[in-house]
């Protein structure tokens, strides 16, 4: 694995200063990126290699990813990217089971999340997106979830219901059923430290946004104030398919929003970079309404 230093429109390769760690993957400081969302020379290589595509089998995905450079040295910066996919496949290799089996054994069955997985067992219950994005007018194409996927991806392709996902959020909030309370606290505290300020300087590329650091898979509020209502220590995230959740332990609050307005209009064609900001704006409006409704 090499690191790709971006010099203008060129990519200069350099050796790793240290190996990647699971901690790097969990907090998205490993150097992996997505080809979609914003543009850079390294991101262009990811797009050209097709690693953002959903229809690659696992071995093909890993082979292509291994041929690509990291965008920065491990631990040098934060960038949300394919680290979650790599984590999922690492778990498969360690356990000798598919990610679908592991999630069912360790998360879905213990929490009674019977409608969650990688396949919609009853397609008649599947909520479909708008045929066209209300903001751009472009057609929407999401991942087909009526059959088994080419690979079980840690970063996309799951299906669930609002009720199931609320069970998961409450388990994290209360520290029971999935992780010990001490591990929940570890997961939902900031792990970026000084990398937060560096992330802010990257502008819109810093996905958690002003006032938020990043824990082990979720954005974490660092203190009072900010652009949106919330409490220090609240955590949230959003998904490509127009999903959004927030958990505020101080207020004993969990909330989620599932919309029919995806942020990425065609996961099947990431190279077209068809984005919509409607889902993100709905998430912010939802957060504001939730906190405004508290008495």
UniProtKB/TrEMBL annotation:
The name this protein goes by in its record: Serine hydrolase
Tell me yes or no: is Hydrolase among this UniProt entry's keywords: yes
Q: Which InterPro entries match?
A: Beta-lactam-related, Beta-lactam/transpept-like, Diverse_Enzym_Activities
| Keywords in alphabetical order | Hydrolase
Task: Please tell me whether the keyword Hydrolase is annotated for this protein.
Answer: yes
In what residue span(s) does the Beta-lactamase-related domain sit?
Answer: 18-263
Q: Name one GO molecular function term.
A: hydrolase activity
Species whose genome carries this gene: Thermus scotoductus
Top-rank taxon: Bacteria
């Amino acid at each position: 694995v090499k690191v790709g230093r971006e010099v203008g429109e060129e990519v200069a390769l350099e050796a790793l200063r240290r190996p990647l760690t699971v901690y790097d993957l969990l907090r998205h400081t490993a150097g992996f990126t997505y080809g979609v969302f914003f543009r850079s020379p390294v991101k262009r290589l990811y797009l050209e290699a097709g690693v953002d595509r959903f229809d690659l089998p696992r071995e093909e995905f890993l082979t292509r990813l291994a041929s690509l450079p990291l965008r920065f040295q491990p631990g040098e910066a934060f960038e949300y990217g394919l680290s979650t996919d790599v984590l999922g496949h690492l778990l498969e290799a360690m356990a000798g089971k598919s990610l679908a089996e592991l999630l069912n054994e360790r998360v879905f069955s213990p929490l009674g999340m019977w409608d969650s997985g990688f396949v919609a067992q009853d397609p008649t219950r599947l909520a479909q997106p708008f045929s066209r994005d209300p903001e751009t007018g472009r057609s929407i194409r999401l991942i087909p979830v009526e059959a088994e996927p080419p690979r079980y991806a840690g970063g996309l392709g799951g299906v669930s219901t609002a009720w199931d996902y609320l069970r998961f959020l409450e388990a994290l909030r209360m520290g029971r059923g999935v992780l010990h309370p001490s591990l929940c606290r570890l997961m939902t505290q900031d792990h970026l430290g000084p990398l937060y300020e560096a992330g802010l300087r990257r502008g819109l590329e810093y996905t958690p946004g002003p006032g938020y650091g990043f824990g082990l898979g979720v954005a974490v509020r660092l203190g009072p104030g900010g652009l949106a209502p919330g409490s220090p220590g609240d955590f949230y995230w959003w998904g490509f398919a127009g999903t959004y959740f927030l958990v505020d332990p101080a207020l004993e609050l969990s909330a989620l929003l599932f919309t029919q307005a995806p942020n990425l209009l065609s996961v099947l064609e990431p190279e077209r970079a068809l984005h919509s900001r409607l889902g993100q704006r709905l998430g912010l409006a939802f957060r504001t309404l939730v906190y405004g409704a508290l008495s």
